[in-house]
Amino acid sequence: MHIHHLALRVRDFEKSLHFYQTLTELKIHTQFSANGGSIAYLQNASGETQLELIGMPEGETVKASGMFLCFGTEDIA
């Protein structure tokens, strides 16, 4: 089992994207807009671990807090 991805909601999407690319040396794997917000998956060279950045549309907030962590495995038995 390994960490597949960690998701973070960010206030400034572009600034956060630059920060995490520089800090972690992860590269953009996928980036898209959805419902007025932005989402990017950054991943390591092997593609095993990803960081998901979620930027909310301007002026919108989420009433939940925190982040989520997803694991990947070849076999759950």
The backbone outline, from C-alpha atoms, is globular
For the sheet with most strands, the description reads:
5 strands, mixed
Regions with pLDDT < 50 over 5+ consecutive residues? Answer: none
The end-to-end span amounts to: 12 Å
Total strands: the figure is: 5
From the alpha carbons, calculate the radius of gyration and give it in angstroms: 13 Å
Query: What's the order of the H and E elements?
Result: EHEEEE
Residue share in helix:
10-25%
Q: Can you characterise this structure?
A:
- The protein has one helix spanning 13-24, and strands at 2-10, 27-34, 37-43, 50-55, 68-72.
- The protein is of the alpha+beta class.
- Strand 3 and strand 4 form a beta hairpin.
- The longest helix is centred in the first third of the chain and has 12 residues, at 13-24.
- The radius of gyration is 13 Å and the shape is globular.
- The relative contact order is 0.33.
- The mean pLDDT is 83.
